[in-house]
Amino acid sequence: MTEPIIELRNVTKRFVGVTAVANLSLALRPGEVFCLLGENGAGKSTLIKLLTGVEAPSEGEILVDGRTVHFRSPRAAREYGIATVYQEVGTLPLMSVARNFVLGAEPTTGRGLFRRFDKEKAATLALQTLRELGISRVADGDQLVGTLSGGERQALAIGRAVHFGARLLVLDEPTAALGVRESATVLRLIEKVRTRGVAVLFITHNAYHAYAAGDRFMVLRRGEMLASFDKGEKSIGEVIELMAGGAELQSLLTAGEAGVVGT
Fold it and tell me: Is there a contact between 38 and 243 (Cβ–Cβ < 8 Å)?
């Protein structure tokens, strides 16, 4: 088994009056898709903030390549190769595909006062990366991102992250707002990214999408790990039941029935 790129060991995050994540441990390895499942309020968003330097753990530690780190900011996390693509994709609809792809790292040509944005190089980088990820419909670097489909925007954001050195790609509900075909495009992107040796943390509440893409799985409820398992150890039905709190619901129903009988 390969060594983890990033580990969380016994991490707890508390806010005033609330424990958002409790004693959570996980390891994210290169070329592996780790699916984090849970309904709203399960602690998924807090975990993203811990991994990306937005928040610091109240207890526990984060390790990169086996060494404890303290992310002081999102920039510090990015320097370790942690990239996040959020549900609301971080692309600018009124800018071109090429501009969006190199935003913040624009290539230039010329020197001194004659230095300018290298539009051709940016377009080549963007289109080549999209083709490598299986997106062939986008053929013009000047095309506005606002004209792309949801899956194509996800591909642009994912491709940009991988091109600029992402070692861990955190995907926050990437299929939540997409249709069936668009979701299938994103799931194919995840497979292509993992074959490049990138670790993928796929955060979702859709058990079907997770099962199609994932290697390992963790179900969160109220900030705590409810279950952790490898692909094949549980059926999709069992995963959905865990996420929905089926066992707890059954115990409540049983207790209710016992109360009715007792009266």
Answer: yes
List, in order of start, the domains of the chain with CATH numbers: 6-262 (3.40.50.300)
Instruction: Give per-residue pLDDT as tens, 13-32.
Output: 999 889 999 999 999 999 99
User: How high is the pLDDT of residue 177?
Assistant: 78
Q: Are 158 and 85 in contact (CB under 8 A)?
A: yes
The pair of structure tokens assigned to 57 is: 């753990």
Q: What is the DSSP string of 185-197?
A: HHHHHHHHHHTTT
Q: What is the pTM of this model?
A: 0.85
Alpha-helical runs (H) found in 18-164: 44-51, 74-79, 97-101, 119-132, 150-163
**117, 106 contact by CB (below 8 A):** yes
Confidence of residue 70 (pLDDT cuts 50, 70, 90): very high
Long-range contacts of 232-236 (CB under 8 A, 24+ apart): 236/207, 236/208, 236/211
Cα R_g (the chain), whole angstroms: 21
Residue with tokens 């330097």: 53
d(CA 137, CA 97): 12
pLDDT at 100 over 50: yes
d(CA 129, CA 123): 10
Tokens of 252: 């409540």
Cβ neighbours of residue 97 under 8 Å, at least 6 residues apart? 123, 126, 127, 130, 138, 140, 141, 142, 143, 144, 145, 148, 156
